[in-house]
Structures are given as structure tokens and as C-alpha cells.
Write the C-alpha cells for this entry.
Amino acid sequence: MDFHIGSKALNAEVMTLGEYNDFRGWELPKDEDGSTPGYLVEYLDGGKANVDTHEGYISWSPKDVFEHSYRKSDNFTFGDALELMGHGAKLARTGWNGKGMCIFLVQGYNPMITPDSQYAMVGVPNVDGTVIINPTIHMVTATGEVQPGWLASQADMLAKDWMLVE
């Protein structure tokens, strides 16, 4: 087998193996312990729903496997934050004081440049009349303004208190 590292978006709820079997309407196999701690897991980033009461794919994970693989959504690293922003998420640090502050990724684009645009005035366009604008991280400040080109501090990059923002 080849080594892989992955990330998944999911919902989880504490549930024993026995409770999971009851939830699914299954009989617990005789060689399994129904009191085994774990989690009901609903995968949100792929997989067809397999239970009518949930939109994502449902499974069960043993407690130790789950807790080794996943972190709660208020305990992300900056690397997690970058990956999640790539999927359209907005994030903030729990340690930030300003209400409503968050960062998000603005995807790059390749617009046509008009003669009166700022890019044309400084001679940036390509030969075909376009300019490539690269992706950037923007911040919503405590005053509600958007600051383009936000840069992470050392503290931000090393923090493990990043969280999703609705």
C-alpha cells in the first residue's frame, strides 16, 4: 500500500459501537463489544448519503482512531486554515479580539485591461491585453472593512487556535 495523508470535512457525535449499530438498525456481531467508545461520523465532502436522516455519508470510527485523525473546528493550524480557505471557508483565530474579524481567499483571475485601468497606466498588461492577478488572502477587519493582501504574523502561522467562521 502507498502512504497517504488527507483531510476531510465532517460532523461527528460521540457514540458507542453498540449505539451505532442500533442507529443503523443492525445487529451487533457477537465478536464485537458494543461499549467500544467512538464517534458517529458524517462526511460532508463527498460520498453519497447512505442514511435518510443525513445529507453526507455516515460511518462509525473508534475513539482513538478518530481523535488521532481529526481536530475540532476551533483547533486548526494555519496549514489547516490555508487548505480550508482553498475550499471557500472563512477563518479567524480564537485569540483575535475584534468582533467579526476573519480571513478568506480571493481566487486569482485574468481580466481584460482597459486603457484607463490602473494596470494599464503602470504598464502591467500582457501582450494580449490581460493581466494575471494572483490569489490573495483578504481580512475583514474589526471595523468591517476588507483589507486585501493580509499577511500572517509568526504568531498566526504557529497558532493552533484557528476556527471556521460562518
In short: The longest strand covers residues 38-43. The chain has a mean pLDDT of 90. Helices lie at 17-24, 63-69, 78-85, 118-121, 154-158. The longest helix spans residues 17-24.
